Amino acid sequence: MVALESGLGLLLSAAEAVRLELLLFAGFWFVIGALDELAIDVAWLWLKSTGRARTHSLAAPLDPTLIGSIALYVPAWREARVIGPMLRHALAAWPHDGLRIYAGCYVNDPETFAAIEAAGTRPDGTTDPRLTIVVNERPGPTTKGDCLNRCYAAMLHDEQREGRRFRAVLLHDAEDLVHPQALSLIDRELERADFVQIPVRPERHEASQWVSGHYCDEFTDAHAREMVVRAELGAGIPAAGVGCAFSRSALDRIIARRGSDAGPFDPTALTEDYELGMLIGRAGAEGKGGRFVRVRASDGSLIATRAYFPHRLDAAVRQKARWVQGIAFDGWEQLGWSRSPLEFWMRLRDRRGPLVAVVLLTAYLLIALTLVLRLAEATGIYRPARLPPLIYWGLILTTLAFVWRGIVRFFLVGREYGWSEGLAAIIRIPVANIIAIISARRALGRYVSDLRGKGKSWDKTEHDRHPADARPRG
To answer: Is residue 372 part of a domain?
Structure first.
């Protein structure tokens, strides 16, 4: 019995030593992360207080006449369920004569082709001339960048045939619900920028309070706070892949820089939209840079792109793993870093996903070890030593930072989705953390596989519902 107690004591002593080391590691990075987010908060509050970050409201609907023709690319692979409602709604919401939609699909995806064809057919049996179907002869899925480049090639063919030049390229996904005022707003903002991004407003799936809901929390936080700060400070603006437009002059510069006429989108990238936005999004000698535009329509609705995001854990993990790999791992290789302190900071923020996952995993391991030690103390088996003052105050600081983050998230999400969703956003933070941990592990595995020559493919999310199927909230 004495030997058993001695062995248990040694085991608990080792657990306490491990906990101390993990506390030092996690505490350091939690403090760094808290200061990082606090800097964004201070900048955001200052911009709000000075009126520079005010969300403007339109007094009346914008003029539907476009300054120049705009080509909308909608790449699709196995999206027969949602691309029909998406295209029908876009064609109806955007009656602009200067709009041309290029819907990309694959030769081995006849269901999606049929859905696109049906969406372009009018009630009288005629075909809407503003919709062009682009069939990729390479069997899918390739990559999203490859599909977008096929749309670009089709646009060039039409320009030569029709003797005109499109002013800009706009990107949307097959599951998106566009805002009626978005196209006119983007067209207007392209007068002052080479790249325009409007917010993304996820729709929460009623069957998934937690998984689909955490997308609402994260996009609202990013597109109501961080992106506003980045835009006002002049940092590079990452493209979200939807609701973003690029001027033709900027795309021409990208093609010239790459020395390839295949198209402006990197066919080897998993997040080609993010990469393109970062390359164009900073103003410089070559162009006008990017703009993030947060505006409300005259009816009070946010001019944003709505969509249902994954509502199952496995689908959310796959999607976020693709984002982490494309931004954190591939982005490091393809975009490198920057000598600008501001830009360097923002790229650190973009690529922190894997490190955040490690720190979060450490934190949850710390919770388990602490519970074990507290249980041992309560039963009289073992008495842990007092924590060093540095760690003690670090825990207080990180706790206060967590409370502050919860307050900010409650305010941002509650203002956009309702105060009950604001409260739910605080409760959903552990769900987001778990998804982040699993996604980072999957992203690292995929990245290592790519380094071994496996190659990239479009590991996209399957969608079974479009916001047009039900009346959007808000």
So the answer is: yes
Instruction: Give 157-173 pLDDT, tens digit per residue.
Output: 999 999 999 999 999 99
Whole-prediction pTM: 0.92
Q: Are residues 47 and 65 in the same domain?
A: no
Cα R_g (the chain), whole angstroms = 25
User: Which residues, 6 or more positions from 143, have their beta carbon under 8 angstroms from its beta carbon?
Assistant: 267, 268, 269, 270, 272, 456, 457, 458
Q: Which residue in 305, 206, 270 sits closest to 455, CA to CA?
A: 270
Name the residue with tokens 């058993």. Answer: 4
- Amino acid 372 reads V
Q: Is the pLDDT of residue 283 over 80?
A: no
Closest residue by Cα to residue 143 from 77, 81, 87, 82: 77
Question: Which whole number is the average pLDDT over 139-155?
Answer: 94
**Residue 257 pLDDT exceeds 60:** yes
Q: Which H or E run includes 207?
A: none
Q: Is residue 329 part of a domain?
A: no
Task: Measure Cα distances from 203 to 173, 214, 471, 474 in Å.
Answer: 15, 11, 11, 10
Distance of CA 266 to the CA centre of its chain: 18
Q: Are 157 and 166 in contact (CB under 8 A)?
A: no
Which residues constitute the domain of residue 358? 2-51+351-451
Other CB atoms within 10 Å distance of the CB of residue 469: 13
pLDDT at 71: 98
pLDDT at 473 over 70: no
4 has pLDDT over 60: no
pLDDT of residue 455: 66
Asked if residue 340 is part of any domain, the answer here is: no
The residue out of 279, 310, 341 marking a domain boundary is: 310
Into how many domains does the chain fold? 2
